[in-house]
Design a protein that fits this description.
Blueprint (H helix, E strand, L loop, with lengths): L31 H11 L1 H9 L3 H12 L5 H16 L1 H20 L8 H28 L9 H11 L2 H14 L7 E5 L5 E6 L8 H5 L16 H55 L8 E3 L6 E6 L2 H7 L6 E6 L3 E6 L5 H17 L7 E5 L4 E5 L11 H15 L5 E5 L7 H17 L3 E5 L3 H8 L6 E8 L5 E7 L8 H9 L5
Parallel strand pairs: 3-7, 6-10, 6-11, 8-9, 9-10
Antiparallel strand pairs: 1-2, 4-5, 4-7, 11-12
């Protein structure tokens, strides 16, 4: 019994991963340092915090799925269909998750000390299953209450599974077995006498039906073959204990495995519901902030599509708690998107919004935009300017190129590289030469690039690339120097308007 909430149940791929943080089609894992830096650069930590609301499992699963985005369009569609239903029925998802967590907690509360002997392990396993029965019955009632209202293969399929496998008559039979496994009349054991009078073939017999109380009080009901041990017959007691343990071993293994399977089922259910629980939390928060929300349209890698309408930086909105400016993007199949313009004009914010939307889409989530269509990326990387090395062993350019080298080691065709002011740690001429050589080689290798820069030489060179290879955007600035934080199509300008910032900080020197 397994829920297929994150991965479709496909006969051609029967061995889907048990854990959602280990997808079979995940790209070659980048280093942990690159993943951690990507979380920081894109503001993924803010998104995860809004999804988790303090739930560590939701945070763990959401982070892993956002970093390890899937490229299989069927998997994304599978999750999107379930996410739509989860958003429409938030209380149901929360109840299922709470019940799964309750079952896990109940199992942990059962004493697991001295369970080396089969009889002790059997007693503990029976106790765990008995405590789980209430949770299983409640799961069935929730599924029964929502029968026919959900139709996705993920959540709709889960409810059908719970209704079918956890039906009351099945659980009643299980409860009856558990009552008998308590062995209230003792442990009936069948043995055979082997060579040398040794006992073999220890078998647990069917417990006898309990006789009426009055009959048990009448004389003559006791077997004439009954043997009583003397109070100090330690050898006899050990022999009987060994007899009992050997007979209980086979059934103990079965019951212990059943107990483990039930707890594993609840843990699997809780873990796979984590993405949808986080999605509900995030959707509610974005709705409170009045942000646009849509389910994106992923396209195959070879199409290279990139289109957005009113795209918003989710992390910025969550941090500020207010409305933020959205932007449009229609890069078509351009291999590179070049973003230039005024300092503090919203270029970095725009870059983050693209990276966040791509990561959220490939996790199976919605995005903060009125529309978003993008080709799936095998992996998304971020390269940005860093602070000076505090150890003073490396200069900024040295450290910047070293980080880019680590990224290049992992780049593959179909990846997405987001560059924020890369190559800006040296002068204009050298930075432009480096940027042009490196980025054109990366694009030629089949990697899509979004490049934010203030290097006018390389910006103008890339803008003149033929054949629609580079889509150029510019941060808008009004005539009086005000920033609108809108990014619109436009050719690079020879200035980033740093003088505006100078006047803002130091005042107008002409006055």
């Amino acid at each position: 019994m397994r829920a297929h909430l994150l991965w479709p149940d496909r006969p051609d791929q029967p061995d889907r991963p048990d854990q959602p943080d280990r997808p079979t089609d995940a790209p070659e894992r980048a280093t942990a340092a690159l993943d951690e830096q990507r979380c920081t650069d894109l503001g993924l930590t803010d998104v995860v915090a809004a999804m988790a609301r303090g739930d560590r499992l939701v945070a763990e699963v959401s982070t892993r799925l956002l970093l390890d985005g899937v490229t299989d369009l069927e998997v994304i569609a599978h999750r999107q269909a379930a996410m739509r239903e989860a958003i429409a029925h938030p209380q149901m998802v929360r109840t299922l998750s709470d019940l799964a967590e309750q079952g896990i907690v109940l199992e942990r509360e059962v004493y697991s000390g001295l369970v080396g002997r089969p009889s002790s392990l059997l007693q503990r396993s029976v106790h765990v299953i008995e405590r789980s029965l209430g949770v299983l019955r409640h799961l069935h009632r929730v599924a029964d209450r929502h029968a026919g209202t959900l139709h996705s293969a993920a959540l709709g399929g889960l409810l059908d599974l719970l209704r079918r496998e956890l039906a009351d008559d099945h659980l009643d039979v299980l409860a009856g077995h558990l009552e008998r496994l308590r062995l209230p009349a003792g442990v009936p054991v069948g043995v055979q006498v082997g060579p040398g009078g040794r006992l073999t073939g220890h078998t647990l017999r069917e417990p006898p039906l309990r006789a009426p109380a009055l009959r048990r009080l009448l004389p003559g009901t006791r077997s004439s073959a009954a043997v009583e041990l003397a109070d100090y017959d330690d050898a006899g007691a050990r022999a009987l204990a060994e007899l009992r343990e050997q007979a209980l071993t086979p059934i103990t293994e079965i019951v212990a495995q059943a107990s483990t399977d039930i707890v594993a089922l609840l843990g699997h259910l809780r873990r796979e519901l984590a993405l949808y629980l986080g999605g509900i939390n995030l959707h509610e928060r974005l709705t409170e902030l009045g942000l646009p929300v849509c389910f994106p349209t992923p396209t195959p890698r070879h199409e290279g599509a990139l289109h957005a309408s009113d795209l918003v930086d989710v992390g910025l909105a969550l941090r500020t708690g207010g409305a933020v400016v959205g932007n449009d993007l229609d890069a078509g199949t351009a291999a590179m998107v070049l973003v230039t313009g005024a300092n503090q004009g919203g270029k970095s914010t725009f870059l983050r919004s693209v990276g966040l939307a791509q990561s959220m889409m490939q996790a199976g989530l919605f995005v903060a935009a009125r529309s978003w269509r993008s080709a799936v990326a095998t992996h998304t990387f971020v390269h940005a300017q860093r602070d000076e090395d505090p150890t003073l062993r490396h200069g900024r350019l040295d450290a910047e190129l070293a980080e880019l080298s680590r990224i290049v080691d992992h780049l593959r065709p179909g990846d997405l590289l987001l560059c924020n002011e890369s190559f800006g740690a040296t002068n204009e001429r050298e930075g432009s030469l480096l940027a042009h050589e490196v980025l054109t080689a990366i694009v030629d290798a089949g990697v899509r690039v979004v490049f934010v820069t203030h290097l006018s030489d390389v910006a103008n060179t890339l803008h003149r690339e033929p054949g629609g290879r580079v889509h150029t955007l510019i941060a808008e600035r009004t005539a009086d120097g005000a920033r609108t934080f809108r990014i619109r199509p436009g050719a690079p300008e020879p200035t980033a308007y740093g003088s505006d910032l100078y006047v803002e900080v130091f005042g107008d020197p002409g006055r």
